[in-house]
Amino acid sequence: MLEVYVDGGCHGNGTANPVCYGSFKIGDEDIVKLVFPELKTNNEAEYESYISVMRKLGDREAIVYTDSQLVVN
Predict the structure, then answer these.
(1) N or C: which end of the chain has fewer CB within 10 A?
(2) What is the end-to-end Cα distance of the chain in Å, rounded?
(3) Cβ neighbours, 10 Å, residue 12
C-alpha cells in the first residue's frame, strides 16, 4: 500500500502577517513543499496540504499519515 505523509503549519498563526506552509511525500517521491500566502492559520494550512496531496493522488489508494487531529477527525 502506498504511504503518504502530510503536514501543514503557520508562523504567526492568526496574526496580521502569517506565513502558512505545508508539505507532503507520496511513497518514494520527493517531498513537495507548499506555501499558502492567502491562509491565516495552521489549521487552514493542514487542510490545504491534505487537499493538495489528495489531488495529486487522484484515484490511487494510500495510507495517509498526519499529525493533525482536526484533519483526521
Answers:
(1) C
(2) 22
(3) 12
Count of structural domains, the chain = 1
> Which tens digits make up the pLDDT trace of 29-58?
999 999 999 999 999 999 999 999 999 999
Domain containing residue 64: CATH number: 3.30.420.10
Give every CB contact of residue 3 below 8 A, 6+ residues apart in sequence.
Answer: 27, 62, 63, 65
Q: What is the pLDDT of residue 54?
A: 96
**CA geometry: angle at 68 spanning 67 and 71, to 5°?**
140
Q: Which range of residues forms the domain containing residue 14?
A: 2-26+36-68
Q: Side-chain half-sphere of 67: how many Cα atoms within 13 Å?
A: 8
